[in-house]
Amino acid sequence: MDLNLREISYFLKVAELGSLGSAAAALAISQPALSRALKRLENRLGGALFVRHTLGMDLTAFGEAFVPHARILRADANRTIADLNLLRGAARGVARVGIVPSAASFLLPPVFERALKRAPEIEIHVVEASSTQLVADLERGHVDFAIASALPAQDSETIAATDLLKEQMFVVARRDHPLAAAGAASPEDLMRYAWIVPESGNAILLELRKMFMRAGFEPPRASVSANSVHTLKRTVAASDFLTMLPAMAFRREEEEGLLRPLALKLPEIFRDLSVLRRAARPLLPAANLVLSEVRDLVASGSAPLQAPLVRANTRLLRRPKERGPGTVHGIGLPRPGPR
């Protein structure tokens, strides 16, 4: 069965707008021409894609099932064209990187510097989003690879995950928070304060809930939720709010004396970050270069990953352990306590 990429693009536009007339106007073609193209695509696929009615067009169950496949086909075609243009020198390489916000400002700046030294002509586009959203972006071809939790990808048949690093998580407060000088905090102590947490879909929120539930407590109610790590940190630094953050996310604020990890009467907790990518799609040269720099930075333990966070001779990056298909590296702050 031969599929026509133009017809696939037409189909996606109609599915997006829900109207033949609106889609025809957006595509700058006539409605009869668009209708004929959709009919040809339906004949090739062997099923009706839309239910047509006076108010517009609705996807059939068959059409709904075809949408994600159509998006992948279109994205693959666009990336193939970009690859060919790159090979014949008609375009610069582009790497589209997805990453969770809590890791972006720590991992990416040195990667940018290293990658652009090796290939000054490439362009790097960054998408910061929750792990759940990044899995969706990968499936739709919006990013080449993502640095995120692998949990949302467990049920995906198109996403492959390889371990990148293991990082310690902390309950974080302002430096002079009442709990900072009270010794190790219990779950009851933590419940007495308001919490600001990431929005749903974020692996940090999942780890926070797991920490309380393992101790036999209901997770604290979030008074405020935000999708910005900067907002989380600034709110905590200026108030008695508590939050949970991975080690790398508040390293700078820890050094500046704005934030500190609280000692807890609870087991240490960690999060895993993985490299997620489309299993059946090889990376283009620019994306492969950026990913190799990410892996090299984590594996080397060089600055900024090796830099001590609080005390001298404290290594941020521990020796890796082998697990599954990739390598896990541990990242953690020194054990919190009075300073």
Secondary structure: elements and pairs:
Elements: H1 5-17, H2 20-27, H3 31-45, E1 50-53, E2 56-59, H4 61-87, E3 94-99, H5 101-118, E4 123-128, H6 131-139, E5 145-148, E6 159-174, H7 187-191, E7 195-198, H8 203-214, E8 222-226, H9 229-237, E9 243-246, H10 251-255, E10 259-261, E11 269-278, H11 285-300, E12 321-323, E13 326-328, E14 330-331
Parallel strand pairs: 3-4, 3-5, 6-14, 7-8
Antiparallel strand pairs: 1-2, 5-11, 6-9, 6-10, 6-11, 12-13
Structure, described:
The chain is of the alpha/beta class. The protein folds into three domains: about 5-85, Winged helix-like DNA-binding domain superfamily/Winged helix DNA-binding domain (Arc Repressor Mutant, subunit A, Orthogonal Bundle), CATH 1.10.10.10; about 95-165 and about 270-330, D-Maltodextrin-Binding Protein, domain 2 (3-Layer(aba) Sandwich); about 165-270, D-Maltodextrin-Binding Protein, domain 2. Helix content is about 40%, strand content about 20%. It is built from eleven helices and 14 strands. It has helices spanning about 5-15, 20-25, 30-45, 60-85, 100-120, 130-140, 185-190, 205-215, 230-235, 250-255, 285-300, and strands at about 50-55, 55-60, 95-100, 125-130, 145-150, 160-175, 195-200, 220-225, 245, 260, 270-280, 320-325, 325-330, 330. Strands 3, 4, 5, 6, 9, 10, 11 and 14 form an eight-stranded mixed β-sheet that branches. Helix 1 (about 5-15) crosses helix 2 and helix 5 packs across helix 11 (about 285-300). The radius of gyration is 24 Å and the shape is elongated. The termini are far apart. Mean pLDDT is about 80; it is low at about 305-339.
